[in-house]
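Weekly sync, protein design subgroup
Attendees: M.S., D.O., the rotation student, P.L. (late)

Item 1: inverse folding check
M.S. brought a backbone from last month's batch and wanted to see whether the design step gives back something sensible before we order anything. D.O. pointed out we never logged the input encoding, so this time it goes straight into the notes. Structure tokens as presented (213 positions):
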């Protein structure tokens, strides 16, 4: 099925506004009240160090397609350092036509999953958008441990503003990125809201810098 995706227009740059330290601290407390583990990194470099410190040597790790992970260099470290069992590398070597079911099963329930989110509300709800939804099941339930790194520009008042940010900022930025790669466009086909964490699976690392879309 071929889809012609409309140009969503320019991103609303109001959604790049930074958050003050006090807001990061309030958001971290709201996340903890919902059962998430929440940390505030000192910098992007510190966030990278926190992520890698949480991944044991040789661990099975899957990295979601994430500008934040790419900017931090975490994706490259996982895929190329040899210190981890990178599911992305393993999946890239498989044949979707003949091994599609195995690929879906392998990517759905990694021991460790790293990525980001598109918005976090003041009361600690995390919103994630995805073109295919491939990482959402792992975030919500199937991954053993989930680590999300979120730049300070992604903090919003409520779910209404979170959804606006996804459509009015993240989607246009991703559309432009795909166009620059010579691809037809991008879409947000599925969304996930994480409203509570049971069992301490999910760590959210807030960063006082702009990262990702």
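Designed sequence read out in the meeting:
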């Amino acid at each position: 099925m071929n889809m012609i995706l409309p140009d969503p227009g320019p991103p609303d740059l109001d959604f790049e506004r930074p958050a003050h330290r006090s807001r990061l601290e309030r958001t971290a407390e709201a996340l903890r009240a919902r059962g998430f583990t929440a940390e505030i990194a000192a910098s992007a470099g510190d966030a990278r160090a926190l992520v890698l410190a949480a991944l044991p040597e040789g661990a099975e790790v899957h990295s979601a397609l994430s500008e934040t992970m790419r900017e931090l260099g975490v994706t490259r470290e996982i895929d190329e350092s040899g210190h981890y069992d990178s599911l992305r590398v393993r999946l890239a070597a498989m044949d979707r036509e003949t091994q599609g079911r195995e690929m879906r099963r392998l990517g759905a329930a990694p021991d460790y999953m790293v990525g980001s989110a598109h918005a976090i509300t003041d009361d600690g709800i995390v919103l994630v958008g995805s073109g295919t939804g491939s990482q959402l099941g792992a975030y919500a339930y199937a991954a053993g441990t989930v680590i999300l790194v979120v730049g300070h520009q992604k903090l919003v008042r409520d779910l209404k503003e979170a959804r606006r940010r996804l459509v009015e900022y993240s989607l246009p930025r991703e559309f432009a990125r795909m166009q620059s790669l010579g691809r037809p466009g991008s879409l947000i086909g599925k969304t996930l809201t994480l409203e509570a964490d049971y069992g301490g699976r999910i760590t959210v690392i807030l960063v006082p810098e702009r990262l990702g879309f």
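Discussion: The chain has one domain: 14-207. The longest helix spans residues 159-180.
Action: P.L. to compare against the previous round before Friday.
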